[in-house]
């Protein structure tokens, strides 16, 4: 009766217990990252997604309705695209019956900007959001696109009870479109049947219907680098993409110049880089020919994310690039040392909170002679309180205006620096005025602005010109989520494009620049699918790349979101018209160019910026 036989038995039991523990622990881990799908009739857990403005939103942010339809989509799925017109028609039909549609993108390769652009292309008026890692889809048991989840609100039993929903239907929209072909029309319309039954207070006869479509897949990590360190991999990335803004005396909220800076903000860095929110660039990726384009490559994003996820190693400091010399006073001028600096006489005194009306001032300098400038930069001494400002010239004694625009300032933007041979003309007898949009910070602030001017150096052959495409008589209806306003101008000369700039206010959603050349198809010059009021940077073409023949009609189409789902909307219940304040609206599309046939051939005195007779 051999006792020794107990040892393998005990060992086996212990091994079984250990495996069971590991399995249970693994199961807990998986359940934490992969939420179990709910069944029909169950209460929907709290779900979150990101809107096209990169903000975290929940179902509670949607307007109250009788029924909610979440339509799960991918940009590259052909069946998903075929159903977008169907969803548009259904949403328009059921909108008056208080049915709220939401497009939920689950494409692992689709960026928020891509999501916004597809909604613009298909003129989708209902909200579109991004579901990273398809977390919401998995919570609701969605496996393919396009599938829909119909949610029915649960009646509150208490006045202050948070809103909750139950899953009423999950599955396909109808049976019209499938892989391999489509029927002329659907024979089963499960989504419509579910909506009609729910609105009538009846039970849904078919609560689930399998969908044919593209399988939802998780984000696939890029091939990892063996070991990512700050010194060898991250410092060069931050210097290349971030340090221009994230340094002292800029509008950026923190610095990214040292290892301590990167570690302190590592999780935030990972979030904004993964979402492609930073580095900031709001032009569509379909128009890559702008020389000032920002953005990390997929490999660069993967490297930064790997560094954050694997412990934020410092690495060997000897592999760091030599430190930059201490900043000098002149380093604040991105245009180099200006030839002339003008500064406001008195600083602006700003309150701790509230809306600050636009302010106007003129610099105390009269240009006695016609002056030519090749670079201009506006420099606030307290950039954190300046949302944006615009500078223009006017004759001495005239009211301050920016009609004769020469440059602007926006957080993250770049100063005006012109190609060789091109210059801004300031007429004799002019002064420079400035329009400033200040913001409050929570405490009283002061700010004084300067403008630095660099005179033209080489021969000036062409004067910088622009067309301002604007409209002062539009009206955006209350509640409209994709209201279009268009305006155009026709060029009176052959032109070579320099760049573009867009400006709207808090309801601005998208802006498209178009060129209608004579006897040619309409060309899209730029699409800004998710306009951001906080980052209104310019878009600069390579010199000579874009040309417009005489009689080209330049057009701007702006889209506005005056709906309740716009988190920045001051009041979705009122119609909005043109005005200077942020709670009003604007359409400003600048197109900068030069006359293709102009050859001024001016010699400029580099010390005064005035034309001199040739020797």
Helix and strand topology:
Layout lengths: L5 H28 L14 E4 L4 E3 L8 E7 L4 H5 L1 H11 L4 E7 L6 H10 L6 E3 L4 H5 L4 E2 L1 E7 L11 E7 L5 E2 L2 E2 L7 H10 L8 E2 L4 E2 L14 H12 L17 H6 L1 H9 L23 H12 L30 E4 L4 E3 L8 E4 L8 E10 L5 E10 L9 E5 L6 E2 L4 E5 L3 E9 L6 E3 L1 E7 L6 E2 L1 E6 L4 E2 L6 E8 L4 E9 L4 E9 L6 E6 L10 E2 L6 E2 L4 E8 L15 E2 L10 E8 L7 E2 L6 E2 L3
Structural class estimated from helices and strands? alpha+beta
- Flag low-confidence runs: 6-32
SS summary, helix count: 10
Portion of residues in helices?
A: 10-25%
The Rg value, from CA coordinates, equals 29 Å
Mean of residue pLDDT?
90
Coarse shape:
globular
How much of the polypeptide forms β-strand, as a percent range? 25-35%
Q: Strand arrangement, largest sheet?
A: 2-1-5-4-3-7-8-11
The biggest beta sheet reads: 8 strands, mixed
According to DSSP, the number of beta strands is: 37
Distance between the termini: 120 Å
Describe this structure in words.
The protein has 615 residues and is an alpha+beta fold. The protein is built from ten helices and 37 strands. Strands 2-1-5-4-3-7-8-11 form an eight-stranded mixed β-sheet, covered by helices on one side. Strands 13, 16, 19, 20, 23 and 24 form a six-stranded mixed β-sheet that branches. α7 crosses α10. The chain is globular.
């Amino acid at each position: 009766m051999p006792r020794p036989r107990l040892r393998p038995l005990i060992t086996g039991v212990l091994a079984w217990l250990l495996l069971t523990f590991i399995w249970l622990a693994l199961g807990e881990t998986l359940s934490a990252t992969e939420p179990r799908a709910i069944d029909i009739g169950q209460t929907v857990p709290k779900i979150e997604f990101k809107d096209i403005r990169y903000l975290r939103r929940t179902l509670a942010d949607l307007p109250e309705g009788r029924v909610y339809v979440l339509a799960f989509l991918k940009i590259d799925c052909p069946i998903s695209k075929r159903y977008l017109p169907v969803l548009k028609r259904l949403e328009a039909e059921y909108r008056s019956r208080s049915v709220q549609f939401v497009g939920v993108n689950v494409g692992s390769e689709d960026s928020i900007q891509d999501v916004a652009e597809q909604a613009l292309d298909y003129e989708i008026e209902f909200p579109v959001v991004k579901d990273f890692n398809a977390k919401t889809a998995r919570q609701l048991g969605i496996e393919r696109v396009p599938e829909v989840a119909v949610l029915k609100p649960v009646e509150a039993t208490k006045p202050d009870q948070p809103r909750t929903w139950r899953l009423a239907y999950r599955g396909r929209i109808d049976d019209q479109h499938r892989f391999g072909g489509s029927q002329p029309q659907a024979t089963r319309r499960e989504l419509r049947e579910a909506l009609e039954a729910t609105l009538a207070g009846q039970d849904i006869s078919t609560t689930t219907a399998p969908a044919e479509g593209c399988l939802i897949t998780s984000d696939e990590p890029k091939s990892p680098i063996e070991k990512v360190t700050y010194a060898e991999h991250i410092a060069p990335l931050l210097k290349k993409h971030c340090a221009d803004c994230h340094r002292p005396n800029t509008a950026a909220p923190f610095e990214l110049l040292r290892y301590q800076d990167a570690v302190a903000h590592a999780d935030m860095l990972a979030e904004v880089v993964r979402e492609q929110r930073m580095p900031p660039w709001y032009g569509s990726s379909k128009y890559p020919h702008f020389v000032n384009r920002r953005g990390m490559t997929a490999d660069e994003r993967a490297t930064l994310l790997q560094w954050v996820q694997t412990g934020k190693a410092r690495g060997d400091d000897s592999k760091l690039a030599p430190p930059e010399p201490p900043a000098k006073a002149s380093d604040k001028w991105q245009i180099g040392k200006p030839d002339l600096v003008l500064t406001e006489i008195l600083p602006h005194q700003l309150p701790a909170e509230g809306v600050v009306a636009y302010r106007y001032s003129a610099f105390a300098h009269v240009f006695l002679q016609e002056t030519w400038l090749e670079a201009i930069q506006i420099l606030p001494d307290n950039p954190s309180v300046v949302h944006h400002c615009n500078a223009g010239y006017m004759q001495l004694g005239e009211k301050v205006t920016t009609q004769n625009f020469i440059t602007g300032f926006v957080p993250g933007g770049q100063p005006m620096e012109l190609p060789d041979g091109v210059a801004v003309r300031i007429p004799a007898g002019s002064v420079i005025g400035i329009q400033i949009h200040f913001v409050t910070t929570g405490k009283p602030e002061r700010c004084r602005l300067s403008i630095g001017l660099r005179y033209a150096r080489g021969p000036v052959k062409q004067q910088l010109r622009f067309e301002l495409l604007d409209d002062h008589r539009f009206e955006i209806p209350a509640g409209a989520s994709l209201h279009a306003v268009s305006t155009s101008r026709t060029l009176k000369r052959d032109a070579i494009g320099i760049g573009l700039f867009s400006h709207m206010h808090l309801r601005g959603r998208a802006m498209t620049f178009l060129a209608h050349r004579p006897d040619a198809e309409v060309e899209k010059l730029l699409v800004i699918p998710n306009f951001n009021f906080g980052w209104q940077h310019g878009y600069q073409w390579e010199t000579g790349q874009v040309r417009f023949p005489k009689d080209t009609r330049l057009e701007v189409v702006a889209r506005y979101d005056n709906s309740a789902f716009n988190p920045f909307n001051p009041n979705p219940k009122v119609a909005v018209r043109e005005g200077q304040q942020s709670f009003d609206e604007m359409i400003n599309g600048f197109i900068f160019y030069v006359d293709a046939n102009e050859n001024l051939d001016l010699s400029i005195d580099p010390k005064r910026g005035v034309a001199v007779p040739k020797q």
